[in-house]
Amino acid sequence: MHRQAEQEYEEVRAGLEAVIADAAARLGGPPGLLNSGPYARRHTFGYALLAGAGFEEAIAGGYALNLPLRLAGATAGPLVALDRPDAVAESVKLADDRGGDVVVRLYEACGGAVRTRLTAGFPLAGVFDCDLLEHPERELAVCADALSAALRLRPFRIRTLRLRPAAPAG
């Protein structure tokens, strides 16, 4: 068994070396090009064990490890918040078309359908389901408080929303 594992390791290693040599040749250099100079990389990784954690705690721990909170000089509330721990807002950004809308990508992380409320840190004129290119496909109802929308998330499905801020009063 040990000899077979060594043989498989050598086959994988040889295959990787061939891929690296091919990439170096395409860059116009010698086979060792990717192991030196500006192409050399030192890879490190970190991990953590969270004994007895459920899905929600494990997800929160993973985000805390990989994306630690950074302190900022200003005090501000969150741009968006979800009221369920199994609903995760993966990213919040301005729309690529520079129209002033905010795009939120979120998903259900524990394997079950969930109802959640997304609350924005600003008044909403509209909330839209959109495709990955951020084109609105379907308008969702904004709650009476004009700050939130009720959502249903399917298990593990990524959902992209486009939040249209209300025009400032005045």
UniProtKB/TrEMBL annotation:
What Pfam family is a match, any one?
A: Glyco_hydro38C2
Residues in Glycosyl hydrolases family 38 C-terminal domain copies: 90-161
PANTHER family attached to this UniProt entry: ALPHA-MANNOSIDASE 2C1
- What is the name attached to this protein's record? Glycosyl hydrolases family 38 C-terminal domain-containing protein
Source organism: Streptomyces tremellae
Q: What is the lineage of its organism?
A: Bacteria, Bacillati, Actinomycetota, Actinomycetes, Kitasatosporales
